[in-house]
Amino acid sequence: MQTYPKNTKYKKFHKGTFNKANQNNILITNTNKGNIKLIALENGRILSTQLLTIRAVIKKKLKKIAYIKFNIFPRLSITKKATGIRMGKGKGNINTWYTPIKYGNIICEIYTRSTIINRVIIALKKAQKRLPILTKRINFIYE
Question: Could you read off the pLDDT of 81-117 as tens digits, one per residue?
């Protein structure tokens, strides 16, 4: 099952660039939306397959004891020409979808009880290994 948008204004996009985000002006506040958050520490892109992989890894470890909310969605397409096709003849077909990530973006939030926080941290460590960018876990636990 691949994640992609149902409707887009344009099917094929230009590649674009990732501007350096100002790393000093990041402000992360707790708005009682999640106990643990996964935050990006560098700019990059996350493919839809990578997003599905980290969702599966987290769900496999946590089962039904926590609620996971992803704040990102793959909305831009990557095109690729088939092998053996000569140069020219326009842009290739859509190969996969991705989402651009900037420094400080919250990738996902996990809502859970404070008693099982160790299992959540282990699940997020496994998910972090499968992401192409550096990330950090932030805990908001109030007793």
Answer: 999 999 999 999 989 999 998 888 899 988 887 777 8
| Tokens at 58, concatenated | 């987290």
Task: Output the pTM of the full model.
Answer: 0.80
Q: What does residue 8 show for φ and ψ, rounded to 5 degrees?
A: -135, 155
Structure-token match 């708005």, residue found: 31
3-class DSSP state for residue 139?
A: strand
13 phi, psi to nearest 5 deg: -115, 160
Question: Which residue segments constitute the domains of the chain, with CATH numbers given?
Answer: 36-139 (3.90.1170.10)
Q: What is the pLDDT of residue 142?
A: 53
Q: How far apart are CA 72 and CA 6, in angstroms?
A: 15
Q: Which of 116, 117, 108 is nearest to 139 (CA)?
A: 117
**Interatomic CA distance for residues 28 and 14, integer angstroms:** 31
Q: Which two tokens stand for residue 2?
A: 């691949």
Give pLDDT, residue 4.
77
How many Å apart are CA 58 and CA 68, to the nearest integer?
Answer: 8
Q: Are 101 and 133 in contact (CB under 8 A)?
A: yes
